Protein backbone atom coordinates (compact mmCIF):
# COMPACT_ATOMS: atom_id res chain seq x y z
CA UNK A 1 0.00 0.00 0.00
CA UNK A 2 2.82 2.41 0.86
CA UNK A 3 4.47 1.66 -2.50
CA UNK A 4 1.24 2.52 -4.32
CA UNK A 5 0.89 5.80 -2.42
CA UNK A 6 4.52 6.66 -3.19
CA UNK A 7 4.01 5.90 -6.91
CA UNK A 8 0.96 8.18 -6.97
CA UNK A 9 2.98 10.86 -5.20
CA UNK A 10 5.84 10.47 -7.72
CA UNK A 11 3.53 10.76 -10.70
CA UNK A 12 1.06 13.40 -9.54
CA UNK A 13 3.20 15.67 -7.34
CA UNK A 14 6.93 15.02 -7.73
CA UNK A 15 7.13 14.64 -11.52
CA UNK A 16 5.41 17.96 -12.38
CA UNK A 17 7.48 19.82 -9.76
CA UNK A 18 10.71 18.25 -11.05
CA UNK A 19 9.89 19.16 -14.65
CA UNK A 20 9.23 22.77 -13.63
CA UNK A 21 12.40 22.85 -11.50
CA UNK A 22 14.43 21.44 -14.39
CA UNK A 23 13.19 24.09 -16.82
CA UNK A 24 13.75 26.92 -14.32
CA UNK A 25 17.23 25.63 -13.42
CA UNK A 26 18.20 25.33 -17.08
CA UNK A 27 16.99 28.85 -17.86
CA UNK A 28 18.74 30.34 -14.82
CA UNK A 29 21.95 28.54 -15.79
CA UNK A 30 21.81 29.71 -19.41
CA UNK A 31 20.99 33.31 -18.51
CA UNK A 32 23.54 33.44 -15.69
CA UNK A 33 26.34 31.95 -17.80
CA UNK A 34 25.49 34.31 -20.65
CA UNK A 35 25.66 37.35 -18.37
CA UNK A 36 28.94 36.25 -16.80
CA UNK A 37 30.54 34.27 -13.98
CA UNK A 38 30.02 30.87 -15.66
CA UNK A 39 31.80 28.96 -12.86
CA UNK A 40 29.11 30.13 -10.41
CA UNK A 41 26.06 29.85 -12.68
CA UNK A 42 27.28 26.61 -14.22
CA UNK A 43 27.42 24.91 -10.83
CA UNK A 44 25.20 26.33 -8.07
CA UNK A 45 21.79 26.26 -9.81
CA UNK A 46 22.44 22.61 -10.73
CA UNK A 47 23.54 21.87 -7.19
CA UNK A 48 20.30 23.30 -5.77
CA UNK A 49 18.30 21.44 -8.43
CA UNK A 50 19.99 18.15 -7.48
CA UNK A 51 19.28 18.64 -3.79
CA UNK A 52 15.68 19.55 -4.58
CA UNK A 53 15.40 16.42 -6.74
CA UNK A 54 16.47 14.17 -3.85
CA UNK A 55 14.33 16.07 -1.34
CA UNK A 56 11.12 16.02 -3.40
CA UNK A 57 11.52 12.28 -4.02
CA UNK A 58 11.89 11.77 -0.26
CA UNK A 59 15.35 10.25 -0.59
CA UNK A 60 17.38 10.27 2.61
CA UNK A 61 20.96 11.32 1.89
CA UNK A 62 23.82 10.91 4.31
CA UNK A 63 27.24 12.15 3.25
CA UNK A 64 30.32 10.79 4.99
CA UNK A 65 33.99 11.40 4.30
CA UNK A 66 33.93 14.92 2.88
CA UNK A 67 36.60 15.83 5.42
CA UNK A 68 38.95 13.61 3.39
CA UNK A 69 38.60 15.76 0.27
CA UNK A 70 41.49 18.21 0.17
CA UNK A 71 40.38 21.62 -1.14
CA UNK A 72 43.83 22.28 -2.63
CA UNK A 73 43.97 19.06 -4.65
CA UNK A 74 42.37 18.35 -8.01
CA UNK A 75 40.30 15.21 -8.42
CA UNK A 76 38.58 13.19 -11.09
CA UNK A 77 35.17 12.03 -9.84
CA UNK A 78 33.66 9.13 -11.75
CA UNK A 79 30.01 8.10 -11.66
CA UNK A 80 29.56 4.42 -12.45
CA UNK A 81 25.79 4.80 -12.98
CA UNK A 82 25.03 1.81 -10.78
CA UNK A 83 21.94 3.65 -9.58
CA UNK A 84 19.57 6.23 -10.94
CA UNK A 85 20.65 8.99 -8.60
CA UNK A 86 24.45 9.15 -8.76
CA UNK A 87 24.35 12.32 -10.86
CA UNK A 88 22.05 14.05 -8.38
CA UNK A 89 24.12 12.87 -5.43
CA UNK A 90 27.45 13.98 -6.90
CA UNK A 91 26.13 17.31 -8.13
CA UNK A 92 24.14 18.08 -5.02
CA UNK A 93 26.23 16.74 -2.19
CA UNK A 94 29.89 16.50 -3.21
CA UNK A 95 30.49 20.19 -2.64
CA UNK A 96 33.05 20.62 -5.43
CA UNK A 97 32.62 22.82 -8.49
CA UNK A 98 33.42 20.63 -11.49
CA UNK A 99 32.68 19.98 -15.14
CA UNK A 100 30.62 17.04 -16.30
CA UNK A 101 31.75 14.85 -19.17
CA UNK A 102 28.73 13.43 -20.94
CA UNK A 103 27.86 11.79 -24.21
CA UNK A 104 27.16 14.23 -27.01
CA UNK A 105 23.58 12.99 -27.43
CA UNK A 106 22.63 14.73 -24.19
CA UNK A 107 23.19 18.07 -25.94
CA UNK A 108 19.89 17.42 -27.78
CA UNK A 109 17.84 17.09 -24.56
CA UNK A 110 15.46 20.03 -24.20
CA UNK A 111 16.68 22.59 -21.66
CA UNK A 112 19.29 20.29 -20.11
CA UNK A 113 21.52 20.22 -23.19
CA UNK A 114 21.27 23.98 -23.54
CA UNK A 115 22.18 24.51 -19.87
CA UNK A 116 25.12 22.08 -20.02
CA UNK A 117 26.46 23.81 -23.10
CA UNK A 118 26.15 27.25 -21.47
CA UNK A 119 27.93 25.92 -18.36
CA UNK A 120 30.73 24.63 -20.62
CA UNK A 121 30.35 21.02 -19.62
CA UNK A 122 32.14 18.60 -21.93
CA UNK A 123 30.26 16.63 -24.58
CA UNK A 124 32.10 13.50 -25.71
CA UNK A 125 31.58 11.84 -29.08
CA UNK A 126 31.63 8.10 -28.31
CA UNK A 127 31.43 7.03 -31.96
CA UNK A 128 35.03 5.83 -31.92
CA UNK A 129 38.42 6.12 -30.20
CA UNK A 130 39.57 8.91 -32.54
CA UNK A 131 36.49 10.99 -31.72
CA UNK A 132 37.05 10.53 -27.98
CA UNK A 133 40.71 11.55 -28.39
CA UNK A 134 39.62 14.64 -30.36
CA UNK A 135 37.25 15.65 -27.55
CA UNK A 136 39.98 15.25 -24.93
CA UNK A 137 42.45 17.23 -27.04
CA UNK A 138 39.91 20.02 -27.60
CA UNK A 139 39.04 20.29 -23.90
CA UNK A 140 42.53 19.63 -22.54
CA UNK A 141 42.82 22.86 -20.51
CA UNK A 142 39.91 21.81 -18.26
CA UNK A 143 41.67 18.76 -16.90
CA UNK A 144 43.80 18.65 -13.79
CA UNK A 145 47.10 16.83 -13.61
CA UNK A 146 47.14 16.65 -17.38
CA UNK A 147 50.08 15.76 -19.56
CA UNK A 148 51.96 18.67 -21.10
CA UNK A 149 50.61 17.66 -24.48
CA UNK A 150 47.72 15.42 -25.56
CA UNK A 151 48.21 11.71 -24.84
CA UNK A 152 49.94 9.37 -27.24
CA UNK A 153 51.05 5.75 -27.17
CA UNK A 154 54.54 6.41 -25.77
CA UNK A 155 53.83 7.39 -22.18
CA UNK A 156 56.94 8.15 -20.17
CA UNK A 157 57.52 8.42 -16.45
CA UNK A 158 57.31 11.95 -15.14
CA UNK A 159 55.22 13.04 -18.07
CA UNK A 160 52.44 14.50 -15.90
CA UNK A 161 52.62 17.95 -14.41
CA UNK A 162 50.57 19.22 -11.49
CA UNK A 163 47.90 21.74 -12.44
CA UNK A 164 44.96 23.13 -10.56
CA UNK A 165 41.55 22.78 -12.18
CA UNK A 166 39.84 26.10 -12.75
CA UNK A 167 36.28 25.33 -13.86
CA UNK A 168 34.72 27.53 -16.48
CA UNK A 169 37.93 28.78 -18.07
- Major sheet: order of its strands? 1-2
Number of strands: 2
- Given the helix and strand composition, which structural class is it? mainly alpha
List unreliable stretches of 5+ residues: 144-169
Q: How confident overall, as mean pLDDT?
A: 80
User: In this structure, how is the largest beta sheet organized?
Assistant: 2 strands, parallel
Order of helices and strands: HHHHEHEH
Characterize the overall form: globular
Helix percentage range: 40-55%
Q: Give the percentage of residues in beta strands.
A: under 5%
Determine Rg (CA atoms, Å).
18 Å
With helices defined by DSSP (H or I, 4 residues minimum), what is the helix count?
6
Q: Report how far apart the termini are.
A: 51 Å
Structural description of this entry:
The structure is a single chain. Helices cover 45% and strands 4% of the residues. The chain has 169 residues and is mainly alpha-helical. A two-stranded parallel ribbon has the order 1-2. Helix 1 (2-35) packs antiparallel against helix 3 and helix 1 (2-35) runs parallel beside helix 5 (112-118). The longest helix is centred in the first third of the chain and has 34 residues, at 2-35. It is globular, with a radius of gyration of 18 Å. It starts with a helix and ends in a 31-residue tail after the last helix.
Short description:
The protein has 169 residues and is mostly helical. The protein has helices at 2-35, 38-41, 44-56, 86-93, 112-118, 129-138, and strands at 101-103, 122-124.
Amino acid sequence: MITLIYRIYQFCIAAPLLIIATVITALVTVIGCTLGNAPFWGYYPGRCWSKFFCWILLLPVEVRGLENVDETTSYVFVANHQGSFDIFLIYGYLGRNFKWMMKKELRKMPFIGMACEAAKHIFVDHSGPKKIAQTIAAEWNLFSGVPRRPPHRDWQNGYFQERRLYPGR
